[in-house]
Design a protein that fits this description.
With about 290 residues, this protein is mainly alpha-helical. It is built from twelve helices and two strands. It has helices at about 1-30, 40-55, 60-85, 90-115, 140-160, 165-175, 175-180, 185-210, 215-225, 225-230, 235-255, 265-280; strands spanning about 130, 135-140. It has a two-stranded antiparallel ribbon. Helix 1 (about 1-30) crosses helix 6, helix 1 (about 1-30) crosses helix 10 (about 225-230) and helix 5 packs across helix 6. The chain is globular and about 60 Å long.
């Protein structure tokens, strides 16, 4: 029983961070129909920029994270304005290839500046081990879980009640109708990419605090988001949350109850991805779109 509780707590914290990264992925898809294969690299860039501000420039944590968020907003605006906006009207495969190229570009920039060797990420959250019903879990994981829950609630309120959030939802539902109502679709796209970059940067700081500062590991964390968004639904914010929790729990349960040499924990999310595409291709909460030709 203690092992089950231990795995459940670990799975919930992992799943919460996956949900946060998936949220940024869903935002871009809902607003612009673009599948962003560079989402994991946004996460990586956010962690390295925070490292530069805090460790290399010696700024306080609060100021370093705040400046990272500002840089993330600018990164999102630049990517949308100069890379994605010229691709409007182009075939979807071209847009996908552009995001893959953007992923390689961001990784190359990070490797050029900071190298490929992993670095210790200075902990800004306490790592005191806590005993919960016999399971031992570090305090930083529980704090990270709380931070992610707060952020997800803030974003849900933003989309439901703020003017910009309602405009983004209208644009996602029907771009032509949104234009006819005076909504600037280009501005909505820029906001969507900026929020997505900020969300990814925050997730990068949280993940780097739990593991370490490693470009390959942080970028690879983004790949684990694809099974999450396919399971929950590409255009569903609640689906991103539920999908993240399910994938996070499946990974740790598989790692805990199967032989390590089988390596099933690393492939179970993609087995789920294939299964859900076969039986429910729009995910658990995704909008079903029927196109007749």
């Amino acid at each position: 029983m203690e092992k089950f509780i231990q795995l459940t707590l670990t799975g919930l914290t992992n799943g919460a961070v996956l949900s946060l990264v998936a949220l940024g992925f869903v935002l871009i898809y809902k607003a612009s129909d673009v599948i962003n294969f560079a989402q994991g690299d946004f996460l990586m860039v956010g962690a390295y920029i925070t490292y530069a501000f805090v460790v290399q420039f010696g700024l306080p944590w609060t100021l370093g994270v705040l400046l990272t968020m500002i840089v993330a907003v600018l990164l999102g605006i630049v990517v949308e304005r100069f890379i994605l906006r010229p691709m409007i009207g182009e075939p979807i495969i071209s847009v996908i290839m552009v995001t893959i190229g953007l992923s390689s570009l961001l990784r190359s920039i990070v490797n050029t500046i900071w190298g490929t060797t992993g670095r210790a990420f200075p902990s800004f959250l306490p790592r005191t081990p806590l005993d919960i019903a016999g399971a031992i879990i570090s305090a930083d994981r529980l704090i990270a879980l709380g931070l992610v829950v707060v952020l997800l609630v803030i974003f849900m309120i933003f989309f439901r009640y703020s003017k910009e959030g309602i405009a983004m939802r209208a644009t996602a539902d029907d771009q032509q109708a949104a234009l006819s109502m005076g909504i600037s679709v280009k501005r909505v796209f820029a906001i969507a990419w900026s929020i997505s970059a900020v969300v990814a940067a925050l997730a990068g700081v949280i993940v780097a605090n739990i593991i370490e500062l490693n470009a390959a590991a942080l970028s690879g964390f983004g790949l684990r988001v694809f099974p999450v968004v396919i399971l929950g639904g590409l255009d569903s914010i609640p689906g991103a949350i539920v999908g993240g929790i399910i994938i996070g729990l499946l990974e740790v349960y598989t790692a805990g109850y199967t032989a390590p040499e089988l390596g099933l924990a690393s492939v179970i999310p993609f087995i789920v991805l294939i299964f859900i595409l076969m039986v429910k291709p729009y995910g658990l909460f995704g909008e079903i779109r029927i196109e007749r030709v």
